[in-house]
């Protein structure tokens, strides 16, 4: 039994997300500028698009959009990852999906912590893309050992945060005061530290191995490296960024602009060069700099079935075979032209996407469907008769190719190293201390449940 005095995990997550946003706005002022721009563009998009407004309103997802964001952190050890899992669980966030980025030249693998229940997603879908450094992919053995030692010595969680996680696990929740202290304490882990824990020489060695290794190993904690608001029109935001003094990366990652958005489109501005000091062997501080934190925006579309995803992957690969986007943006126009040409093969009509089994949808009875509940129609007939409506299920996850593109644009061309592709979900799950949820099975379950709700009240047949 949960104690009614406990604050709900959804509330703790919303409070944490708001606190994180306030902290990041202080730390990275360009994030505040981006937030205001996204808010304006979202309002304009809804004003100009009553059908989109209606869809968001009937699916109860209008309110979540202005509060919606994801962040990303990079962890160094298995112990950090498994403790982070316990921290996120207190906020109702669970690991979904496995992402291997070694294939894209980034020595990490990752999962996304996020709420999974429909009701929780509607309250606040805050997600954190959480990577774990793969020191096993770093060739220099001495450096690897030194990095391991540095990581073993740091403690990224406050004693208060650990105690409150244990208390929440023991009691099954947290009361008001504890929940507030939990948010404040956990926030400390995500803070930026302008004093590194390594010497200038060590930083240089780590940086030479890979910039990402330096980013993880040189600091006291896993600073949040971006916080991404959700926009309803990413092309407009991209176009208007320069007027706000922000330079976006050359291309929007993911699918091209379409009438019916699919999966996820993302763009970002480059990482800031920030002042950091490093302590020499003799104890004196040396000033230097580090680039890690950037800004990103995203537009979310329908979640794709394995069949839809396979088509998406095939079309994206074909595009990239024909034109690989250069990091300096020099062939951006050509890339975008090829992308939209190739993606003509992906249907751009909700009912087509649904009928071909490419995307996941939620079904619901219309008013007409309710009043004629005794009339038992099959699902397609019920849709045709206007008794049942369907709406796209939002993709709540990430895309490894886009994530790699975002990593790369922030690490610079020189960071594009070759690693042997070595996905290792087992090792990741062992380090995490649990298995990750399969996102396809989860979306399919949500779709099935919505169909069953209709069937129970007036429709037969199932669609898959
Ligand atoms: C994570 C990049 C992944 C996204 O939106 O795909 C990500 C990172 O840079 O640490 O956030
Ligand atoms: Ni991101």
UniProtKB/TrEMBL annotation:
Cofactor(s), by name: Fe(2+)
Enzyme Commission (EC) number: 1.13.11.93
SMART domains: DUF1338 (SM01150)
Record-given protein name: 2-oxoadipate dioxygenase/decarboxylase
Molecular function as annotated in GO: dioxygenase activity
Keyword Iron on entry: yes
InterPro entries for this protein: HGLS, YdcJ_bac-like
Principal EC category: oxidoreductase
Oxidoreductase among keywords: yes
Pfam families xref list: HGLS
Keywords annotated in UniProt: Dioxygenase, Iron, Oxidoreductase
Family: Belongs to the 2-oxoadipate dioxygenase/decarboxylase family.
């Amino acid at each position: 039994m949960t104690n009614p005095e406990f604050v709900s995990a959804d509330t703790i997550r919303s409070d944490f997300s708001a606190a994180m946003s306030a902290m990041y706005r202080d730390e990275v002022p360009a994030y505040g500028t981006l937030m205001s721009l996204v808010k304006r563009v979202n309002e304009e998009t809804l004003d100009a698009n009553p059908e989109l407004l209606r869809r968001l309103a009937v699916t109860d997802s209008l309110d979540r959009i202005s509060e919606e964001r994801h962040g990303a952190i990079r962890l160094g050890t298995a112990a950090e990852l498994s403790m982070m899992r316990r921290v996120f669980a207190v906020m109702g966030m669970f690991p979904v999906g496995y992402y291997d980025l070694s294939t894209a030249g980034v020595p990490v693998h990752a999962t996304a912590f996020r709420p999974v229940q429909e009701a929780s997603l509607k309250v606040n879908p805050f997600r954190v893309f959480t990577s774990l450094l793969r020191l096993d992919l770093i060739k220099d053995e001495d450096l690897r050992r030194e990095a391991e030692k540095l990581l073993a010595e740091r403690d990224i969680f406050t004693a208060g945060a650990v105690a409150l996680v244990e208390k929440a696990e023991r009691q099954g929740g947290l009361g008001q005061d504890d929940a507030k202290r939990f948010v404040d304490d956990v926030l400390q882990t995500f803070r930026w530290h302008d004093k590194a824990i390594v010497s200038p020489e060590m930083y240089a060695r780590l940086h030479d191995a890979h910039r990402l290794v330096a980013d993880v190993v040189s600091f006291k904690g896993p600073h949040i490296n971006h916080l991404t608001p959700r926009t309803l029109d990413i092309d407009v935001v991209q176009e208007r960024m320069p007027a706000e003094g922000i330079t976006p990366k050359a291309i929007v990652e993911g699918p091209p602009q379409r009438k019916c958005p699919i999966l996820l489109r993302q763009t970002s501005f480059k990482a800031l060069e920030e002042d950091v000091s490093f302590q020499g062997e003799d104890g004196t501080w040396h000033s230097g700099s580090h680039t890690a934190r950037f800004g990103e925006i995203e537009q979310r579309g329908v979640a794709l079935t394995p069949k839809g995803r396979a088509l998406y992957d095939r079309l994206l690969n074909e595009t990239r075979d024909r034109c690989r986007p250069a990091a300096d943006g020099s062939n951006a126009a050509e890339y975008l032209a090829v992308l939209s040409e190739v993606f003509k093969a992906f249907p751009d009509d909700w009912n087509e996407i649904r009928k071909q089994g490419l995307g996941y949808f939620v079904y619901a009875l219309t008013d007409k469907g309710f009043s004629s509940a005794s009339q038992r129609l099959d699902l397609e007939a019920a849709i045709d008769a206007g008794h049942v409506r369907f709406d796209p299920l939002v993709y709540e996850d990430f895309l490894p190719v886009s994530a790699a593109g975002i990593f790369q644009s922030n690490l610079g061309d020189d960071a594009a190293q070759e690693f042997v592709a070595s996905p290792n979900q087992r090792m990741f799950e062992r380090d995490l201390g649990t298995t990750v949820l399969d996102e396809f099975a989860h979306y399919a379950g949500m779709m099935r449940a919505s169909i069953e709700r209709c069937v129970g009240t007036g429709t037969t047949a199932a669609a898959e």
